Amino acid sequence: MTDQIIFYALALLLIFAGSMVITVRNPVHAALFLVLAFFTSAAIWLLLEAEFLAIALVLVYVGAVMVLFLFVMMMLDINLAPLREGFARYLPVGGLVALLMMFAMGLVVGPRYFGSERFPVPARHAADYSNTKELGSVLYTDYVYPFEIAAAILLVAIVAAIALTLRRRPHIKAQKPQLQVAVRREDRIRLVKMTSEKKGSP
Amino acid sequence: MFETLHGIWQVFPEGLRLVIIILLKIVAILVPLMLCVAYLTFAERKIIGYIQARIGPNRVGPRGWLQPIADVCKLLLKEITIPSGANRFLFLLAPILAIAPAFAAWAVIPFDDVKVLSNINAGLLYILALTSLGIYGVIIAGWASNSKYAFLGSMRSAAQIVSYEIAMGFALVGVLMAARSLNLQDIVLAQQGNVLHWFWLPLLPLFVVYFVSGVAETNRAPFDVAEGESEIVAGFHVEYAGMTFAIFFLAEYANMILISILASVFFLGGWLSPLEGLPASLFEVPIMGTLLGPGMHWLFLKTSIFLFLFIWLRATFPRYRYDQIMRLGWKVFIPITILWLVVIGVLIMAAVPPWFN
After folding, report:
1. A183/chain B closest Cα distance in angstroms
2. Which residues does B179 contact at the CB level (< 8 Å), separation at least 6?
3. With an 8 Å Cβ cutoff, are B323 and A51 in contact?
4. Which ipTM did the prediction report?
5. Confidence at A199, pLDDT banded by 50, 70, 90
6. pTM, 2 dp
């Protein structure tokens, strides 16, 4: 009973946040509503005893991805007027695509495959059940090869993204912190021993 | 008297009683925490004073002991100003977003073998997730203030926190590998033995990386470019006054205490006593035994060592330059942590005593 009340409250909040993301005018506000949407879906996952996924969602998407997103969005002064230009002209095409997508999703996500009779209510686990441990043990035994392959692909993607955006400009003058940190006293100061000069001499 | 109280207690339904008990526990954690924050500011001013051969605050109350109370009164009575052109709602929301994660993370800290608000399985992940949320307060404050200085400060702080979070996360991966658990209580119990069994020894590089990243994450000196007075006035909270400013201040100090207590839980054995290896008869002496045995007081002692380190660092080092901060985070700390994860893996596979057997 309490579970259901919490679920419906969270679901309503999630739908509200999701619809605000696409309707508010200010892009920063939209990003903040997206954060709210991520957060609420994490809470719904917690209700489903999937605490690892929920915390990972908050950690990765809310804690890192959206921060960088906001970072960029606040730096760019996005002018909304040109973005909204021709809304009426593109509306029929956009609407058609949206309807097609809804139809395609309805085919797959409908009651035929995800109906409640196909998925019985899962049994509640005991308090010492660790979702993280279960996920880990499956991920590193049964699915170890797909997991490793995905990791390798992601690594290649990171290297490629960095290699594509890295510009080496050899002629600019910039400080090199690693050289500055490595400087020793002997490189900069030379102590010279000399005898004191006579008083009164010019 | 007691009978009537018990009678009233029985009137409440079961669920409500649970909620009341949890709320009381939260109050029992947060009220001492607030007091600690107040007196930490006092300690900071005194310690830095003595380091710089001054006396520090000594006017309010005996030897200045009431100074934090006076500060709180001043901040409470000040006017809250909202800059024109600021986004009113987000401007007032930002301090709340800054302080909520700093407090919420305390839910999983084990103070004792039984005293912990919520002994959850994924405690370490929970801590990581919540400490990564504190940045929203900073970013939103900088943006909503409609001020260039505040905005520059929040951008600097955002970039810094995101970079150092990676090193911090990797350091904690080392801890969970060594403890074989994400539960904070289990992590403490995995360090049982004596001082040499604590994780600071096998995880020494991670320990250093964790603490330095913690200093960088809380935007404390020498990593406080986010509020570099000489360049951008006070950084992200330049437009805040009175209580809204005080909440940012509170969040910063609460985060400092949180980092210190986490460092003692992860690397210095939490509430375990350093004298554990001594003969058992010593711990059976009435008062001395409790003092020498494991307990909350050891956790607080270890935490205060780290807090003193925070203040000491601030009084000793000049501010880092921004590119040097980024280099330290990305090119030094992250490679060190990744390398040490491999080393720990080897140590665990080889079951090296006394930690991994």
Report:
1. 14
2. B186, B187, B190, B191, B199
3. no
4. 0.81
5. confident
6. 0.85
